[in-house]
Amino acid sequence: MPSFSRSDPELRAAPADAVDPELLALPAPPQGRRLLSMVSMLAVVIAAIALLLHLRPDVAYSFQNDRAADVGSATAADLSELETNSYVRVRGTPMLSRMVRFERALSGQQYAVFPLAGQRQIFVQVPLEALQDPARAAQGEFSGRLLTFGQLGGRFRAVREYLGRAMGMPVTAESFVVLAEEPPSAYGWAVALSVLCLAIIGLAGFLLLRWFRPIPAEVPAAVSR
């Protein structure tokens, strides 16, 4: 490996602030590729932040106690005292004649949604396989996450429309749904996914800071060997 020292004629002749013509002759970095990389990184950060905000209720629910709050009978429940995004237990007779079946697009798992007899404001969602087990179907007691149709968003819009149109049971955004067999411990995936989003945001932010960090203008002196 060649070595250089301060005694070399070229180094003595060149001033400290001299510009190397060979460096000037090098092609400039492609601006389009750099801009595309920056835009892609910002898009990933924005997507991670949006997903993190979307997961906030799931993460909050995952940290709740696995002991369900007893709502009692659906016909006697005080709707004004029901706290959404909580783990509850409710009793009632399933009205399977008003049942709606649907399938989740990502998992492919099938579910059934039905009201409990004697009222029209508390519904229950159970895995369809639970209705094929006589012991689980006839228990008359359901424990799970309490939400409203409005909180469930677009994925339950078709269920709401079908209940109102075909079943004659108009459902509002304030109507309640108990997602049976979904205790807080079942939402550990939300915590793991949130940690992954935070890691992605942190890594992208670190890379962006390094990208825009100014390059030191001071050139170190040559070291003789």
Element layout with pairings:
Layout: H1 9-13, H2 21-25, H3 31-54, H4 56-62, E1 69-73, E2 86-91, E3 100-103, E4 110-115, E5 122-127, H5 128-131, H6 134-137, E6 141-148, H7 149-152, H8 157-165, E7 176-180, H9 188-212
Parallel strand pairs: 1-2, 5-7
Antiparallel strand pairs: 2-6, 3-4, 4-5, 6-7
Describe this structure as you would to a colleague.
It is a single chain. The protein has about 220 residues and is of the alpha/beta class. It folds into 2 domains: about 35-65 and about 185-210; about 65-180, no CATH class. The chain is built from 9 helices and 7 strands. It has a 7-stranded mixed β-sheet with strand order 1-2-6-7-5-4-3. The chain is elongated, with a radius of gyration of 31 Å.
Mean pLDDT: 83
Low-confidence sequence ranges: none
Question: N-to-C SSE series?
Answer: HHHHEEEEEHHEHHEH
> How many distinct domains?
2
Radius of gyration: 31 Å
Beta-strand segment tally: 7
For the largest beta-sheet, the strand count, sense and barrel status come to:
7 strands, mixed
Please state how the strands of the largest beta sheet are arranged side by side. 1-2-6-7-5-4-3
Report the β-strand fraction as a percent range. 15-25%
